[in-house]
Amino acid sequence: MQTDVCFSAQLDHLILRSQKNSMRRIAFALLASALSLSAVAQTKPAAQTTLAATPPMGWNSWNWFAGKVTQDDVKAAADLIVSSGMRDAGYVYVNIDDTWEGKRDASGVLHTNEKFPDMKALADYVHSKGLKLGIYSSPGDQTCAKYEGSLGHEQQDADLYASWGIDYLKYDLCGFGKEMKSKAPDDKLKQNQMMQEAYEKMHQALLKTGRPIVYSLCQYGFDSVWQWGPSVGANLWRTTGDVQANWASIALIAKTQIGLGKYAGPGHWNDPDMLEVGNGKLTPDENRAHMGMWAMLAAPLLAGNNLTQLTPEVTGILTNREVVAINQDKLGKQAERVYQEGPIEIWSRPLADGGVALAVINFGEDENFVRGIGLHLKEAGVKPGMKAHDIWNAKDLGAIKDDYKYSLKRHQMLLLRFSK
């Protein structure tokens, strides 16, 4: 969700990135060390190590419902996640985004609004389905949609979430932008220090509840969050702006992940935003490429579609067990691009069993450009004699070489798994 505050922050971010210097890097290194030491001193070191050991999977309300989501909508989503087979495929988080918040009482306790009459009962219902419930807030005094934020009430809110039985928190920077600008109007370094401190404050609050709650940072990738996210307890962090239900947005975000693989791993993941599979006017090829790419990127798989209108095709894409297995691979290594030729790119991901996942994608827009390229198996880490399986076509290929014949239309993906 982006507001004027977010767009302003994005502009400031671009300026900030252009002003990097050695003093700034040293300052951030010192800050990260201080925050990390503080966390170690105040909590048990392993407090969150088991959380998000693989990328979280589930569903988020925003892409489809936005501000109209209700408690009944979330209950219905939980039912459909089970009946569609999504739960059994690994989609277990049912995440409420913004607009559930009401007002605070005289004691500062936050209450839900009329759309969510009983959050504890909702959590109990979701848990009864073998699922987990997620919620949303902001480190500012207001959320993106101008509802009540957590500024000054971090521990109070964390305790409330724990009492309800919340399992996941998306913490969105939106409302904190004005706080940063008001207290450090001309000091970008100070603003980013404030941002990190705000995220660490909620991290500590969550730890003190004693309840394992996945901690998701949503601050659009500002100031290389992948470098400092783990030091503030984040299990995942957004790397870009909001994804849209069109190929241009999906392709741009995918390419933005180049070089970020070294920052991801069990318990801490790069988040290129929610899945748009089944939304907008995405074609079947685009839905498969989108899903396949997010799986290769070890990205959180949070569906954002209307579950009441699931088609067999979309369900099949979201629940393809071989694709999900790549995403959830225990090694936790994110794919990197290993070769590019024109609009066609090859991405490779090592797997825990010694195998390799390889994706070839035609990012081009020319409908007449239909072709394949050499697979560059050596660069991709594929050893001689490994056997290939074409996942989207459910076909064993045996041992193949670089000159394997295939062709890709615009926005198509060849997704292969190589095994010993």
UniProtKB/TrEMBL annotation:
Catalysed reactions listed for this entry: Hydrolysis of terminal, non-reducing alpha-D-galactose residues in alpha-D-galactosides, including galactose oligosaccharides, galactomannans and galactolipids
Alpha galactosidase C-terminal domain span: 341-418
Matching Pfam families: Melibiase_2, Melibiase_C
An example Gene Ontology molecular-function term: alpha-galactosidase activity
The protein's enzyme class: hydrolase
UniProt keyword terms in alphabetical order: Disulfide bond, Glycosidase, Hydrolase, Signal
CDD domains in UniProt: GH27
PROSITE patterns according to UniProt: ALPHA_GALACTOSIDASE
Enzyme Commission code(s) on record: 3.2.1.22
SUPFAM superfamilies: (Trans)glycosidases (SSF51445), Glycosyl hydrolase domain (SSF51011)
Alphabetical list of InterPro entries matching this protein: Aldolase_TIM (IPR013785), GH (IPR017853), Glyco_hydro_27 (IPR002241), Glyco_hydro_27/36_CS (IPR000111), Glyco_hydro_b (IPR013780), Melibiase_C (IPR041233)
One example of a Gene Ontology biological process annotation: carbohydrate metabolic process
Leader sequence residues: 1-41
UniProt family annotation: Belongs to the glycosyl hydrolase 27 family.
Protein name: Alpha-galactosidase
Provenance organism: Terriglobus roseus
